[in-house]
């Protein structure tokens, strides 16, 4: 019995043991987890990890982490295969511990990781649209004052215009202007996921001569103070498919700035130091004439005077009663031949007691300028451990610009930190603070007390040193020294007394948390803020040309934008090689702009610039703008075997600036790409061939307070006034529809590459303020108006023509062409949509034209094209304005070459454009006054218009015979029978130039804006590691560089890239009193400890 029991017990135990083992075998699983990074420790999102010879695997998340369970028990004999495009595939042994995989870049792979919308990192290989990446070293290579200037010539389809001056504030646009609103074409700048608002507050006008108008002053915008030393890279997202997830403000492209962090540093502590020293001078001068001095053609000495029958000059009346000729701004006076004339005396600040030699002072404009300099010193500390990293930096920049008493100082501090709190949670934090102080920035534009105005009106016979005392003797601080005209400000008073100071504080901060919910789900929350406070002033002394009793203005500009995002991401791989990455999220944006401005016209005490020093109560203006935007969006990325890719996105915005019934608007995008060389067997020389295509729509809203009746501020305390712009309760959001197609083709192990894109974009429902009949009580009204098309091509060719052990030559050519066309305007609207007007030149949009068309008066011509001359012997004036040209170039290009030999590296960048038209107000005035060499035609023997004094036609016309003073205007005159015959009427050269180049004649004062610039040259030497072995440095390099070295163009003034800063708008195609562009030579030292 006992034996039987034992036997049964043994059987039961055996059965239980077998059952237990069987169950264990059935449930056996192995957990595979770890992280994939590059060799610098930067997490690689989207890397694939799978058990070799199986379909079991996973894709890394945002932090490069992965986790999955195998259905079988894995041992050290099992191999895991880790792949990431652009890196060498790695096989590793399985371990039940957390794996740390470091992948090495594959030099033969052309693909790279790019940062796309919302900061999501993607394989470039899988993108269905064009993007361009610019490394931070390319930004700091020649260290421009404004970081955005360094993008010029490096990105196909990118356009950057700047107002000039020390800050060189710029406007960035991508693939042409899409809006009829001059301020509606700006690309969105995003820094570490934080969109930057970029309002430009400038109450002044580009043209204000003779008016009590404020000058344009460039105090910078929202992104101008970004520290170049903190930039890791810049990704330019071009098409709507690339930018759709950023919403309405991304309709014109996105400039994504990624700042430096400690992720790529070595473990432990590290220190780096960078120094830049650069010098600036004027890149290019107009051809001023110094053959003839101040005066007019009519200044012929009367009988009985010392200068009887002669062309003479006299500052004030001569001792013999000779009338004064020194009150004119024109330079049609006597030729410089050593004559003795009564001129200005700096000793008695009036007419000299004795005649002095009549000579030209050829440096009387150039000597107003100095050699500017910029000093930049930057120190960065990095720290890195297994669970986190930290980077802290501080940069100091001091700029003394090329005009005395102008420039700025800037201090930037930045902290970047990331910490792995737990296996599932990672936190990132970045903050930067910038303090910028401007003691004085020069005013811009054509206004009686701007430096540009002085450069125009300065006469060849005036010694600049005569003006240096600034004030009339005994009237210091009360009456500025203006020997020649009360309409021309003393340049030294303008520079040292009429100052435009500013102090600005700017903070950009972002914090994000990434939570790994499971092996397939991640959740990210992020919040970022940009906040700036700018205190500005304008000082105008007593006896100022515009404000005779002095003027003081104080502005406090407060601006902030808060963005908060939440993003849930799902990622998984499936049998057959399919991979899916899908996200859904939302954004809440709040914007506030607050301008408090107070000014007094008239000062009690000279030189005291306070509101309490005004002779009357301050005029106070307060402008407040608030805007909110709520959004929901999704994105899905599907790929098959890393050969075929499909992306789908959608976003819905709710904007506070739109009417309630149109406040919500949705826009989708679809893009696809196919890697042809992996789908098909192509010839061996082909390294990579990708086709891509996309479709997208992007919506856009407008500025606040256009939907309801609001009152504007009044100049009278406690009062308000009806707005001049009629509101609209039913306008719709702008919608841009974009199509794009292209290819990326590489050959011979990527030694040659061609990237081509074609795009077609239509923007309809343009939101703008159109002119109204004044009898309505409003000057403008908000409407939806028309449709604008942009169609273009972009080409980027890269090559490595020479590659040896020690020598490498890389070359990159970028080329782009954009065709802009207005397809329609609002039904019933005026056929001419005025976009901008400066002086007598206008940018006007018409159906069939472009948004950059320049309009104005032209010469009147006969059917054969000859200029028609009137009865007065001068060109007839037209009755109506006409199309003159377009500000837009036919095409733009850039060509960068880099030569490396051992530790030496030489980089050369050329860029330019063909086509485009620019109207120059400065040229008009200097030709009208005879200040440029072009005005010597007819005045010097051998020139086309020249008439000798012995020419009988001069006396027959009743003129006093003088050589080089008269001419016959080329053209024809009308006959009574309607025919035309050659003009034969003699006129003075002065009168011809005054009429031919009059301000309103936009045709004769406009020029081809084509140019070629040697934009950058940089020679760098990196010390060999052997040299540094016994030093405290792990890396060291020195470099010399130049920027804006030469410009080849037919444009006769400073720079064909000049624009007019008119209020808060930069107007292309119009120049009004521009200042010189600087040429820079610099030295750079980089040390890493």
UniProtKB/TrEMBL annotation:
Domain TonB-dependent receptor plug stretches: 129-254
Alphabetical list of InterPro entries matching this protein: Beta-barrel_TonB, Beta-barrel_TonB_sf, CarboxyPept-like_regulatory, Plug_dom, Plug_dom_sf, TonB-dep_OMP_SusC/RagA, TonB-dep_OMP_SusC/RagA_CS, TonB-dep_rcpt-like
Compartment annotation: Cell outer membrane
N-terminal signal peptide: none
Any one Gene Ontology cellular component term annotated for this protein: cell outer membrane
Keyword Signal recorded: yes
Gene Ontology molecular functions: siderophore uptake transmembrane transporter activity
Pfam families membership: CarbopepD_reg_2, Plug, TonB_dep_Rec_b-barrel
Record NCBIfam families: OMP_RagA_SusC, SusC_RagA_signa
Protein name from the UniProt record: TonB-dependent receptor plug domain protein
């Amino acid at each position: 019995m006992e034996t039987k029991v034992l036997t049964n017990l043994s059987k039961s135990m055996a059965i239980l043991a077998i059952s237990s083992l069987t169950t264990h075998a059935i449930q056996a699983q192995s957990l595979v987890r770890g992280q994939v990074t590059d060799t610098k420790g930067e997490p690689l999102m989207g890397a694939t990890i799978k058990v070799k010879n199986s379909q079991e695997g996973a894709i890394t998340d945002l932090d490069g982490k992965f986790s999955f369970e195998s259905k079988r028990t894995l041992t050290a004999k099992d191999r895991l295969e880790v792949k990431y495009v652009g890196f060498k595939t790695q096989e590793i042994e399985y371990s039940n511990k957390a794996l740390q995989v470091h992948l090495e870049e594959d030099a033969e792979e052309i693909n790279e990781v790019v940062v796309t919308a919302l900061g999501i990192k993607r394989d470039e290989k899988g993108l269905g649209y064009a993007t361009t990446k610019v490394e931070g070293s390319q930004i700091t290579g020649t260290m421009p004052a404004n970081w955005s200037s360094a993008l010029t010539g490096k990105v196909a389809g990118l356009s950057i215009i700047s107002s000039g001056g020390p800050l060189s504030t710029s406007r960035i646009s991508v693939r042409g202007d899409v809006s009829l609103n001059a301020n509606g074409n700006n690309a969105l700048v995003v820094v570490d996921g934080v969109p930057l608002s970029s309002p430009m507050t400038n109450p002044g006008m580009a043209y204000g001569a003779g008016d009590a108008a404020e000058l344009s002053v460039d105090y910078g915008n929202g992104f101008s103070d970004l520290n170049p030393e903190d930039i890791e890279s810049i990704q330019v997202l071009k098409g709507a498919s690339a930018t759709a997830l950023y919403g309405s403000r991304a309709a014109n492209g996105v400039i994504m700035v990624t700042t430096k962090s400690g992720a790529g540093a070595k473990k432990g502590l590290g220190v780096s130091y960078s120094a830049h020293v650069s010098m600036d001078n004027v890149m290019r001068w107009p051809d001023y004439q110094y053959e003839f001095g101040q005066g007019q053609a009519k200044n012929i000495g009367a009988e009985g005077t010392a200068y009887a029958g002669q062309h003479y000059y006299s500052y004030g009346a001569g001792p013999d009663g000779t009338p004064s000729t020194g009150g004119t701004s024109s330079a049609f006076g006597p030729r410089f031949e050593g004559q003795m004339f009564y001129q200005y005396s700096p000793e008695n600040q009036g007419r000299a007691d004795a005649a002095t030699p009549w000579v030209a002072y050829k440096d009387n404009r150039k000597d107003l300028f100095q050699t500017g300099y910029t000093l930049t010193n930057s120190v960065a500390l990095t720290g890195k451990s297994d669970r986190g990293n930290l980077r802290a930096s501080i940069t100091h920049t001091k700029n003394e610009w090329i005009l005395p008493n102008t420039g700025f100082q800037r201090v930037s501090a930045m902290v970047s930190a990331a910490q792995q709190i737990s296996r599932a949670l990672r936190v990132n934090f970045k903050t930067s603070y910038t303090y910028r102080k401007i003691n004085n920035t020069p005013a811009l534009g054509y206004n009686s007390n701007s430096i540009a105005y002085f450069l125009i009106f300065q006469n060849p016979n005036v010694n600049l040193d005569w003006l240096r005392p600034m004030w009339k003797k005994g009237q210091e601080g009360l009456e500025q020294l203006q020997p020649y005209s009360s309409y021309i400000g003393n340049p030294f008073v303008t520079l040292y007394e009429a100052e435009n100071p500013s102090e600005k504080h700017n903070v950009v901060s972002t914090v994000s948390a990434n939570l790994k919910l499971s092996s397939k789900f991640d959740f990210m929350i992020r919040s970022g803020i940009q906040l700036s406070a700018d205190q500005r002033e304008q000082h105008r002394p007593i006896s100022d040309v515009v404000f005779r009793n002095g003027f003081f203005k104080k502005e406090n500009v407060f601006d902030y934008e808060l963005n908060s995002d939440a993003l849930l991401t799902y990622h998984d791989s499936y049998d057959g090689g399919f991979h899916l990455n899908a996200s859904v999220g939302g954004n809440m944006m709040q914007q506030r702009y607050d301008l408090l401005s107070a000014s007094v016209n008239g000062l009690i005490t000279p030189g005291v610039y306070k509101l309490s020093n005004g002779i009357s109560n301050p005029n106070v203006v307060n402008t407040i703008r608030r805007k909110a935007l709520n959004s929901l969006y999704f994105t899905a990325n599907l790929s098959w075997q890393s050969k075929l890719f499909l992306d789908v996105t959608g976003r819905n915005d709710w904007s506070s600036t739109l009417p309630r019934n149109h406040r919500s608007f949705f826009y989708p995008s679809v893009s696809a790409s196919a890697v042809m060389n992996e789908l098909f067997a192509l010839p061996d020389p082909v390294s990579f061939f990708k086709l891509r295509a996309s479709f997208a729509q992007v919506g856009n809203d407008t500025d606040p307070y256009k939907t309801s009746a609001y009152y504007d501020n009044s100049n009278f305390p406690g009062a308000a006034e009806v707005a001049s712009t009629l509101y609209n309760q039913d306008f719709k959001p702008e919608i841009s529809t974009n199509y794009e197609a292209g290819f990326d083709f590489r050959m011979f192990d990527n030694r040659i590459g061609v990237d081509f894109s074609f795009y077609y974009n239509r923007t309809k429902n343009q939101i703008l303020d159109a002119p109204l009949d004044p009898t309505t009580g409003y000057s403008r009204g908000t409407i939806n108006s028309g449709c604008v098309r942009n169609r273009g091509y972009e080409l980027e060719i890269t090559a490595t023509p020479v590659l040896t052990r020690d020598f490498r030559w890389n070359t990159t050519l970028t080329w782009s062409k954009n065709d802009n066309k207005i397809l329609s305007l609002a039904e019933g609207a005026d056929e001419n949509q005025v976009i901008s007007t400066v002086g007598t030149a206008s940018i006007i949009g018409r159906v069939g034209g472009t948004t950059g068309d320049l309009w104005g008066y032209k010469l009147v011509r006969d059917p054969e094209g000859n200029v028609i001359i009137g009865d007065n012997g001068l060109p007839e004036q037209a009755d109506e304005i006409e199309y003159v040209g377009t500000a837009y170039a036919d095409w733009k290009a850039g060509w960068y070459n880099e030569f490396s030999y051992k530790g030496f590296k030489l980089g050369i960048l050329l860029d330019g454009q063909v086509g485009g038209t620019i109207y120059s107000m400065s040229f008009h005035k200097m030709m009208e006054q005879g200040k440029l060499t072009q005005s010597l035609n007819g005045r010097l023997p051998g020139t086309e218009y020249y008439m000798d004094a012995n020419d009988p036609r001069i006396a027959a016309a009743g003129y006093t015979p003088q050589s080089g003073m008269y001419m016959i205007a080329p053209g024809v005159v009308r006959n009574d029978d309607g025919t035309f015959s050659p003009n034969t009427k003699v006129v003075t050269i002065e009168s011809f130039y005054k009429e031919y180049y009059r301000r309103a004649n936009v045709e004769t004062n406009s020029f081809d804006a084509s140019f070629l610039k040697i934009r950058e040259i940089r020679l760098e030497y990196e010390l060999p590691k052997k040299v540094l072995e016994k030093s405290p440095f792990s890396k060291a390099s020195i470099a010399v560089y130049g920027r804006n070295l030469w410009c080849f163009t037919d444009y006769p003034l400073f720079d064909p890239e000049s624009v007019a800063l008119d209020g808060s708008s930069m107007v292309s195609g119009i120049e009004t009193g521009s200042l010189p562009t600087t040429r820079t030579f610099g030295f750079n030292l980089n040390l890493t400890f």
